[in-house]
Amino acid sequence: MSFTLFADARLALARDSLAGLSTGDALGARYFAPGARPEDLAAGVLPPAPWEWTDDTEMACSVLAGLAESGDVDRDRLALAFAERCDPRRGYGAGAMLILRLIRTGTPWPVAAASAFDGQGSCGNGAAMRVGPLGAYFADSTVRAAAQARASAEVTHAHPEGIAGAVAVAVAAALAARARLDGHRPAPERLLAGIAGAVDPGTEVHRSVHRAAGLLGRPLSRVVAALGNGSRVTAQDTVGFTLWVAATHLDDYPAAIRVCVQAGGDVDTTAAIAGAVVAAYTGVGTPGGVPEPWLAAREPLPTWAP
Ligand SMILES: [Mg+2]
């Protein structure tokens, strides 16, 4: 099926994905607080509101704001937006803080991004955590979603794994949003194969997405042992796992988030990534979608968010 996706429709899909991202981020972050127990969420008990979102949401809002304005990623403007809006209280990693400080004080983003981690560039999961709504925005073209994801990643993540992580997540969200428009849920193995096909085959992220397909239906502990749960905060130990979650629970947002919380690790980011992909398929307030009460418990998005 081919179709034309108008600007308003793109933005609506991306906003749903952003709702899923920000709610997953904010709820996931609650489980770093003392006394918060994943078992409670599994039993249906939600933490007290408001749930404050973190860097994942702040950066995702900047990505989507740029798209809403011009329809394309403008790397120079995105780098400045990331740097100027960076609120240090939102849980940014030390590497991200350093890159954004360099950009804010006048270092060109290619230099700042390349300087990270002794000149290797960042392979952190930060480019993947913010990119789901971009993928939903380009639901009509996985090629475009992948290219735009790469552009959005490059301003902070120069390492091939960091970029591959963003491409994988954006293509996942594009395929999920496309499936929503088609009215047909893709089989998990098919979805993962479609994602893997768009990712640089020389990367560990690609191998991880490929391995995720072989782990469908397996117990969570085994999946985490094989793919990670983001505890190393790299794209390699985050993206395969989150896409396993999204493919498994594509029609059930609460289930996807519960699994991320149960898995532990970098929970705000794993729930943000899986949540963004799943919500691109389910939407908000629909059966299996982002529950309205969860969205109401999430701190409001920044006033400048699209
Ligand atoms: Mg975070």
Q: Report Rg.
A: 17 Å
Structural class: mainly alpha
Q: Element order, helices and strands?
A: HHHHHHHHHHHHHHHHH
Q: From the coordinates shown, what is the CATH architecture?
A: Orthogonal Bundle
Span of the ends, CA to CA: 29 Å
| Beta strands, count | 0
Domains counted in the coordinates: how many? 1
Main beta sheet:
none
Overall mean pLDDT stands at 96
CATH superfamily: ADP-ribosylation/Crystallin J1
Low-confidence stretches: none
Give short descriptive properties of this protein.
306 residues, mainly alpha, ADP-ribosylglycohydrolase fold, 17 helices, binds magnesium ion
Describe the structure.
This is ADP-ribosylglycohydrolase. Keywords: Hydrolase, Magnesium, Metal-binding. InterPro entries: ADP-ribosylglycohydrolase, Ribosyl_crysJ1, Ribosyl_crysJ1_sf. Its cofactor is Mg(2+). Helices cover 64% and strands 0% of the residues. It contains 17 helices and no strands. The longest helix is centred in the N-terminal third of the chain and has 24 residues, at 7-30. Magnesium ion binds at residues 54-56, 91, 268-269.
